């Protein structure tokens, strides 16, 4: 019984001191600054880990995607915030970088670069092949068409 009470008190204490809380976005000041509502008061927060390259584009994107929505703010050591939109957990800082409105100044924001490579095998080109059109092919991947068979000429019927 004492373990349950200790666990309850400990978990209540831990939950009350979490710095990442959901807040509502009220407005966008510029491409890096948001106005949020926290505990009934308006507050401005800045996004961390990005340097803007297109302030107007970033401001427009954030107005379309964030105003009047709930976001989770994660405090960063440099004083800014990582912003995650709720309920789909869109990482707004990374989204600005991926769309070209900002460049990442922290390695955790940079999107992962995956190069997709499809290995199709090797090609064995024979040097002994005869130099004919049928052996070379026509480049379309199919065999060349065969010539049509000659047909009998039709006789014109004489008018009677």
Describe the structure in your own words.
It is elongated and about 100 Å long. β1 and β2 (about 35-40) form a beta hairpin. About 25% of the residues lie in helices and about 25% in strands. The protein has a six-stranded antiparallel β-sheet. A two-stranded antiparallel ribbon has the order 4-8. It contains four helices and eight strands. It is an alpha+beta fold and about 160 residues long. The chain has a domain at about 15-105: OB fold (Dihydrolipoamide Acetyltransferase, E2P). About 20% of the residues are buried.
Number of DSSP-assigned strands = 8
What is the radius of gyration computed over CA atoms, rounded to a whole number of angstroms? 34 Å
Strand content: 15-25%
Total count of helical runs of at least 4 residues: 4
List keywords for this structure.
single chain, 160 residues, 6-stranded antiparallel sheet, two-stranded antiparallel ribbon
């Amino acid at each position: 019984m004492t373990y349950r009470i200790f666990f309850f008190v400990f978990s209540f204490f831990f939950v009350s001191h979490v710095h990442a809380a959901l807040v509502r976005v009220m407005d966008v000041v510029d491409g890096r600054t948001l106005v949020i509502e926290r505990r009934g008061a308006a507050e401005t927060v800045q996004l961390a880990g990005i340097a803007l390259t297109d302030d107007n584009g970033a401001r427009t994107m954030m107005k379309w995607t964030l105003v009047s929505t709930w976001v989770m703010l994660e405090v960063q050591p440099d004083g800014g915030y990582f912003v995650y939109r709720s309920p789909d957990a869109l990482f707004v800082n990374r989204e600005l970088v991926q769309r070209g409105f900002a460049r990442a100044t922290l390695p955790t924001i940079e999107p992962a670069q995956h190069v997709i490579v499809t290995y199709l095998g090797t090609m064995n080109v024979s040097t002994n092949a005869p130099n004919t059109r049928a052996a070379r092919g026509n480049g379309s991947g199919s065999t060349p068409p065969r010539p049509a068979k000659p047909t009998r000429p039709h006789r014109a019927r004489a008018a009677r």
